[in-house]
Amino acid sequence: MEHTPTIRAELDRYLQQKGLSLAQFGQLSGMNRGIISAIVSGNKSMSVNQLDRITEAMGLPEGEFYDLFIENFIIDHPPNMRRIEPFLFRCAELDRLDAIRRVVGAIMDNLLYSPKLFEVAEGLLAKGRHEAALLLYEGVAEAERYQHSERLAVCQYRKFTIQIGDDQSENLKAATLFEPFVERLDEIDQLDALKDLANVYRSLRKWDKVNEMARQMRAKAEIQYSLKHQEKRVSRDIEKRTRGPLFGYIAYADLLCAGVYEAQGDYHQALQYTYAYANLDWVKETDEDTQHWIGLFKHWAKANIIVNKLLSGDIMVLQEYIEYIDTAGDTTQEDKVIQLLNIMIAANRYDIDVNHIIKRFEADIVSLSQHSPSDMYTQQVVPDYFAWCGYELAHYYLHRNSYDDGFKHLMYSMVSYHTLNNETYFINCMGLFLHFREHATPETKANFLNLFEKVWMNNVKKNGTVDRRS
Question: Do the beta carbons of residue 44 and residue 77 sit within 8 Å?
Fold first, then answer.
């Protein structure tokens, strides 16, 4: 029978090979002789901090003995969370996800460890160790899959937010898997969950799902807002807070519904919802934060009222929109690109010459791809708008015989949609290129063909298929 090697045996062998006494090695490792003696003799367990000191003193890479630590002190002993917790945090620091995966597999047969492992996951998430936290949330979720607990729902929520990234195909899968767990969350957490889901579906242009999430969020927010202002409201020891003001979820639901109708071309209904979130006289709070948010919603409504009129064919409001943009004050780069997108959609739809307007946005066009995601909206919705804006600019220039500019923006849009893994809109870009390919220079054609080949090869690798001729 083959015996599992031990850290103690490795240390003892090292001491003999180097001819070091316990006291000498203690000085090298920064630990006293008694601790080293107890570790070597097996009379004392070992912490991950002590293991790191021993590993460093032996001149070995960080984490060299982590697999043995799991074997010696986690698998071969009853799980001790006082030892396991710091070990997990240390593994996360060293990006030893393999070790974390082994620990989770070793201890999660026992549901008693689920609450503590969940706490560790929350701690890792707070430190930005998302991949490590994801492994723990997955372990807890798997262990509690038949428990129907709120903790299970929170794990699914955390998994959803961690897994959302550039790949829109994977984002749809993550949203679909998480959605059934929303109702199991705390009533307040449900609002943020529905808002996050709505923004992901919005980036995917799944307007039926955006509408569904928005209406659910509005109904739940109205209940919570009513409870908040009841005179005989049942008090809570610790009142949970949403990420934003409670009334904002009601207003944001109206904003989402307006977006749904705008995308469907029903501008009359879109305007009705826009007027709704523009008028927030019903809001009872009067503090500075509330006034700030009310101002934002009015600001967005003013712009969107003009946009809806513009997209419906009222070309006369274009100048009003430009004047609004000029007087808007502090405007983010994301806002500028979305404003340009609205103008380009109208220009392409109604054949409007907007060359003079595009010049106003030259700096924003140059830095189209430079944006820093901070929440689910800027992480998901904004990149799609940027890619879309590139397509509309390409469409505009190509149809006006400005081929260099057109192909430049089309390439940006295609690369963006490839990054987003959005096949539908990538194919739309391909169609636009093929329609105008005879106007492309040899160098431009080569660049596009290289991109097509790269996408094809990536799909071959992803699907596991092989080109037998290569």
Answer: no
Q: Distances in Å between the alpha carbon of 102 and those of 97, 116, 139?
A: 9, 17, 11
Give the Cα separation of 172 and 164 in Å (integer): 9
Rounded distance between C-alpha atoms, residue 389 and residue 346, angstroms = 12
- Are the CB atoms for 214 and 260 separated by under 8 Å? yes
Report d(CA 272, CA 252) in Å as an integer.
Answer: 14
Spell 140-158 as b/e; 16+ CB within 10 A means b. Answer: bbebbeeeeeebbbbbbbb
Q: State pTM to two decimals.
A: 0.86
| Tokens read off for 433 | 């290129």
| C-beta of residue 84 within 8 angstroms of C-beta of residue 108 | no
DSSP letters, 134-148, are HHHHHHHHHHTTTT-
Model pLDDT, residue 153 = 96
209-231 residue pLDDT tens: 999 999 999 999 999 999 888 85
DSSP secondary structure letter of residue 48: H
| pLDDT beyond 50 at 133 | yes
DSSP SS3 for 177: helix
10 Å CB burial of residue 240 (0-12, 13-18, 19+) is exposed
* Cα–Cα distance for residue pair 409/396, rounded to 1 Å: 10
Question: Is the torsion defined by CA of 445, 446, 447, 449 positive or negative?
Answer: positive
Burial pattern 53-85, b for ≥16 Cβ within 10 A else e, equals bbbebbeeeebbbbebbbbbbbeeeebebebbb
Element (H, E) at 73: none
For the beta carbon of residue 50, count every other beta carbon within 10 angstroms: 18
Say if residues 55 and 69 touch (Cβ distance below 8 Å): no
Secondary structure (3-state) at 211: helix
> CB-based contacts of 80: which residues, under 8 Å, 6+ apart?
73
Pair of tokens at residue 416: 């963006």
CA dist., res. 219 & res. 254, Å (int): 11
Question: Which one-letter DSSP state was computed for residue 113?
Answer: G
d(CA 161, CA 196): 8
